[in-house]
User: Which sequence fits this backbone?
């Protein structure tokens, strides 16, 4: 149980934490919502901090869902691991709206920025269920970005299939929904077929 | 042991009233303001009026005229007010540090902390103290969550839209605002200037 080293003062606030490891130093430069969507340069918060343009402002769950949509996330059923999908969990408690967010790592574990504390890796979304963070209320997903080396390989040796896809499906940027088109195109390009039973 | 009190003169009355005013406003008992050269008599009269004092721990302030006395009173009062504000701020800051939840990711929750709430409630006198601390934090590490307090007290937001959320840049913007406008803003907020727009 726990991470090696001196116990953290916040551990007692997370009774379901189980195994965890520390993944960063303490910082206030970004918060869990920014971290969950991959932004470690700033704090995301509806008022006084960064909040995506066009996303509804407020602390209700749907406001954060809208904000995450601007980064290509869409609601999904659960936090099960899919190789080509990047998932986040959004936590709410009974007293207020969203209070925390965590993101899934490629190995299926989860990573969270804890307030002003460190980033940690934890086993499941439920590891952080507590009075402080409530519980995971909904999940969102987007296509997992390919690793850098894969991107470079694709850039230097485009495959025949990708050329076909590019010629078959072009994104019309004059369409106000072109970002959605782009996302669906991207999803189709990277999504692997579901395994058949 | 019995004490005998001399009749008081007008000057002494003025001095005693000054003591009572200071004591009533800031709870200070160690300052005496005397309009004449008989501080001991003034102190005695203060006791007669029920004003307690620490005989080993007071400053005697003398003035040659009413105007001078008033000037000294104003300056002394302002000095003492600043000292009291700083003490109050430091107490509240310590309380905030010891009671805050560092697990919260929502800065909007922080003003709910009673100590932080009271810092905001101090109003304009808290501003130079917050700025002082923000400046120090920016030099030595990361700025703390002072931005809600700064916004609430000043009703200003000097942070460019593209820098909202980038706390280092937010701190720089607030420090720049203070350096350029702080003195004027404080004077206006404290009612020392006319209500000119800026």
Assistant:
């Amino acid at each position: 149980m726990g991470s090696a080293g001196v116990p953290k003062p916040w551990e007692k606030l997370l009774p379901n934490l189980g195994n965890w490891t520390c993944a960063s130093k303490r910082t206030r430069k970004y918060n869990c919502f920014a971290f969950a969507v991959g932004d470690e340069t700033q704090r995301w918060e509806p008022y006084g901090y960064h909040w995506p343009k066009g996303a509804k402002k407020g602390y209700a769950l749907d406001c954060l869902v809208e904000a995450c949509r601007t980064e290509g996330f869409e609601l999904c059923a659960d936090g099960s691991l899919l190789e080509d999908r990047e998932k986040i969990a959004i936590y709410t408690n009974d007293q207020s709206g969203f209070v925390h967010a965590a993101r899934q790592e490629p190995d299926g574990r989860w990573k969270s920025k804890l307030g002003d504390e460190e980033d940690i890796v934890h086993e499941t979304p439920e590891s952080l269920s507590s009075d402080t963070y409530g519980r995971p209320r909904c999940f969102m997903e987007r296509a997992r970005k390919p690793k850098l080396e894969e991107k470079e390989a694709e850039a230097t040796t485009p495959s025949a299939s990708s050329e076909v896809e590019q010629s078959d499906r072009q994104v019309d940027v004059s369409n106000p929904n072109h970002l959605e088109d782009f996302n669906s195109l991207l999803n189709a390009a990277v999504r692997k077929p579901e395994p058949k039973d | 042991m019995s004490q005998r009190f001399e009749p008081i003169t007008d000057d002494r009355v003025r001095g005693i009233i000054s003591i009572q005013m200071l004591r009533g406003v800031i709870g200070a008992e160690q300052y005496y303001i005397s309009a004449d050269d008989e501080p001991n008599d003034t102190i005695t009269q203060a006791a007669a009026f029920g004003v307690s004092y620490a005989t080993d721990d007071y400053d005697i302030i003398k003035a040659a005229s009413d105007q001078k006395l008033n000037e000294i009173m104003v300056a002394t009062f302002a000095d003492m007010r600043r000292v009291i504000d700083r003490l109050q701020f430091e107490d509240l800051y310590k309380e905030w540090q010891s009671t805050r939840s560092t697990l919260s990711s929502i800065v909007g929750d922080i003003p709910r902390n009673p100590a932080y709430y009271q810092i905001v409630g101090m109003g304009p006198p808290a501003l130079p103290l917050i700025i002082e601390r923000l400046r120090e934090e920016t030099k030595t590490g990361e700025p703390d969550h002072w931005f809600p307090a700064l916004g609430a007290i000043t009703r200003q937001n000097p942070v460019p839209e593209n820098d909202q959320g980038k706390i280092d840049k937010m701190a720089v913007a607030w420090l720049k605002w203070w350096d350029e406008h702080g003195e004027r803003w404080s004077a206006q907020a404290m009612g020392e200037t006319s209500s000119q727009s800026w």
